[in-house]
Amino acid sequence: MSEFQKKNPLRKFRYLLGNGQNWLLKRSKWVVATSIALFVILSLGLTQLKFLLLLDDLIDPDFKTYTELRTLNSEFDDTYNLTLFLRDRGGNSLKMGEICDIWRWVQKISDSRGDIKSIFTTLDARLASDKSGVLKYEFLLDPTCDSPESWVTEEQELSLQKSPWKNLLASRDGNEFVASFYLIPTNEGSRFGAFDTKVVSQIQSRLESSVLPQHTNLEARWGGTATY
What we know:
Blueprint: H1 3-7, H2 9-26, H3 28-46, H4 55-58, H5 66-76, E1 81-88, H6 96-112, E2 116-121, E3 126-131, E4 134-139, H7 154-162, E5 176-183, E6 186-190, E7 193-194, H8 198-209, H9 211-214, E8 218-223
Antiparallel strand pairs: 1-5, 1-8, 2-5, 3-4, 6-7
């Protein structure tokens, strides 16, 4: 490089760029092979990459109902949920003993964890009724696990079929037990919030080590935003 080129930044840049191009041209096979290898490595990594897309992410902040949506989310605060669906593999109705064991397991989860905000199950469905001039908000299904014969009456089953909960907290045939776990958001993560992903695997592991070994006829399916 001449003294003139050293004193002129533009010429110096052009000189270095030219040398770089010459170096790459002389090693074209090596450059191509390296590029392919990097592409393959990055592609393998992308298969493990997952995104949690919320409805908030897909709506333009300038859209007229965006503010109302954010307000709705803050009031209900149920962004991160893990929903469990338990049913008999043969499609049979769940037995009283199975229902009670599942219910006890849910209660233990609720009592032992501080990272779950609330749990809502099929047995938590309520219906408002007016009895003798008194407005009551009673459970639709109120099992007593100590006395199986008093679990669900025909009247209770009929109430569930006619209620808004029919296909929300039970399957169409009524043979599923549903439990929704609402997770407490953490302060870390993106501006859309975050939750501790370990909670999901821990809840699943506890189910697999307690309820499922006792009732091998049951199968579990998971859903909700926390399962992405």
